[in-house]
Amino acid sequence: MNTEIIKISANDGAEKYEKAVELLKSDNIVGMPTETVYGLAGNALSELSVKRIFEAKGRPQDNPLIVHISEFDEIYDLVSEVPEIAKKLAEKFWPGPLTMILPKSEKVPQCVTAGLQSVAVRCPSHKVARNLIKYSGLPIAAPSANISGKPSPTKAEHVFSDMNGKIPLVIDGGESEEGVESTVITLCGETPKLLRPGNVTLKELESVCDKVLVDDAVLNPLKEGEKVSSPGMKYKHYSPNAKVTILKGDYKSFCQYVNKNNSPETYAMVFDGEGENLQVKFITYGNKNDYRSLSNHLFDCLRELDNIGAKQCFVRCPQETTDDLAVLNRLLRAAAFNVINLNKKTLLGLTGKTGAGKSTVSKYLKEKGAYIIDGDIVAREVLVDNAPLLNKLAESFGKDIFENGVLNRKKLAEKAFISPENTKLLNSIMHPAINEKIQTEANEAFKTHNVVIVDAAAIIESGYADTCDKLIVVTAPEEIRKERIIKRDNISEKDAIIRINGQKDDNFYNDKADYIIRNYEPFSLEDEIAQLINDIF
Questions:
Q1: How far apart are CA 146 and CA 159, in angstroms?
Q2: CB neighbours of 91 closer than 8 A, spacing ≥ 6?
Q3: Which end of the chain has fewer beta carbons closer than 10 Å to its terminal beta carbon, N or C?
Q4: pLDDT above 60 for 191
Q5: SS3 of 138, please?
Q6: How do the residues of the chain divide into helix, strand and coil, expressed in percent and rounded to 5?
Q7: Would you tell me how many other CB atoms lie within 10 Å of the CB of residue 523?
Q8: 97 Cβ partners below 8 Å, 6+ apart?
Q9: Of 403, 375, 371, residue with least CA distance to 390
């Protein structure tokens, strides 16, 4: 199939629409301009036409379509009832970028509504779109004219790029004015609810409705098993090929993070005038304080990432105001909710059985920008000039743990780890002082770092794990750990086994872990730690 592009302006007469109208009446589909984004238009009352829409887009069958009309009165054929609030909203916002969900009539096929007993309807303000509907005499089902999941098209050339060879015709009606899809509000419940934000803002809706609820899925993923009730609610949507990460925080923190994680195929997407301090290539997507500027350029920028071959893109997060909901909503889905809060202070605990390889993981995380507090170092420091603590150790484990007045840590370890009881006794003496010193160091570290990691073998036993936001447990099989301990500490196999036996079993650690890192072959440390890096850094 050859895809043709025809330019039609607002002033053109009916003859310009003849080919498109003929195609629609014969159950074919065409690319149609609207003020929001370009739509993939088909006869909403024809199951064959709707089937062709889904096939061209590769769209899941559980994702409902919006039906477009040219005049308000056409709504009565599509819905079973029109409440007064719908009339008031239409009076203020139609024609325009507002979609209302109402109980459907029997005329509307189930394939349009994805099996729901409601239908989404809107009257676009784009004159070419309305003329096409009027001249065809059909209600038009028209989801965005892109491959499902990819950024929506705001130009005819975008539609051609995605749909060339899949549809017979694209109408070029100029660049879309709004830049993001319509606002979707459902009127099927007791209280109107915003399902998808757009350029009709929540504040504007509230000027007509007494109250408007905001669906949790506007800024969060759909809950497992929850049915899609509006287009644009899928977990991942509007996505370029590049991995998109939204960075929340101030501009300085953004630049520092991006410059630390750059590569030849890494790009940044920033607000106007923000590129000069970046060490990566960047594109701008509008004025930080003008949400319409951002919405107008958002999808163009996401498509541009594919054009320039970006593999990774860090995006400046828009303000979380009611006006900016549309942009943030689209970005969250483009990033599959991959968001990093640069200004959030995160305290992580890092532990594991002796010989598991905590120091290797600790070094890796330090390279990623974390501040590391070494529990062993703190344990040494807390004993310096601490006569009461040293005397208590001597009383509990014998004076022979000192040589020439200096604590022999190896001898103390031999006695402390010979049994669980002795280990518990050592912990009861040392942990309160160590925890206090760790907390002091962590508070100081947070002045310059957002992520602080406490690397401590007994962080669970000490109770300090309860202070941490997340706990990382490093694991390795006993035989591997034994070999590591012998090599690391230059001790006998017997002594290594004594140390191993002095610790809790694997379940003690793993049951409390938020992240388990398998630090041994055939597992790759980079793969094992990837989720943690994605979540925290």
A1: 6
A2: none
A3: N
A4: yes
A5: coil
A6: 40, 20, 40
A7: 13
A8: 35, 36, 122, 124, 125, 178, 181, 182, 183, 198, 199, 200
A9: 403
Q: What torsion do the CA atoms of 159, 161, 162, 164 make, to the nearest 10 degrees?
A: 90
pLDDT tens digits, 314-342: 999 998 877 779 999 999 999 988 888 88
User: What is the three-class DSSP state of 448?
Assistant: coil
SS3 403: strand
Q: Within a 13 Å sphere around the CA of 382, how many CA atoms are in the beta-carbon half?
A: 21
> Which residues lie closer than 8 Å to 426 by C-beta, 6 or more apart?
393, 396, 397, 412, 416
Q: What are the structure tokens assigned to 392, written together?
A: 């208590």
Q: How far apart are CA 20 and CA 29, in angstroms?
A: 8
Partners of 316 in beta bridges: 247
Structural contact between residues 280 and 269, judged by C-beta atoms closer than 8 angstroms: no
Q: Positive or negative, the Cα torsion across 170, 176, 181, 184?
A: negative
pLDDT digits (tens, 9 = 90+) for 6-30: 999 999 999 999 999 999 999 999 9
Question: Which stretches does DSSP call E strand in 375-475?
Answer: 402-403, 406-407, 451-455, 470-475
pTM confidence score: 0.69
- The DSSP 8-state label assigned to residue 20 in this structure reads H
Helix (H, G, I), strand (E, B) or coil at 470: strand
Q: Name the residue among 104, 100, 128 with its Cα closest to residue 39.
A: 128
Burial of 258 per CB tally in 10 Å (0-12, 13-18, 19+): buried
**Three-class SS state of 101:** strand
Is 92 exposed, middle or buried, given 0-12, 13-18 or 19+ CB atoms closer than 10 A? Answer: middle
Q: How far apart, in whole angstroms, are the C-alpha atoms of residue 37 and residue 237? A: 15
> Three-state SS across 302-333?
HHHHHHCCCCEEEEECCCCCCCCHHHHHHHHH
| Adjacent-strand bridge partners of 98 | 183
Question: Angle at Cα 113 formed by Cα 108 and Cα 116, nearest 5°?
Answer: 105
Give me the numbers of helices (H) and strands (E) for the chain, helices first please: 19, 23
Report yes or no: 334 and 242 within 8 Å, Cβ to Cβ.
no
Pairing outcome for strands 402-403 and 406-407:
antiparallel
State residue 308's pLDDT score.
Answer: 92
What does each C-alpha distance from 491 to 32, 192, 472 come to in angstroms? 76, 71, 27
Indicate the DSSP class of residue 263: -
Report the distance separating Cα 337 and Cα 441, nearest Å. 33
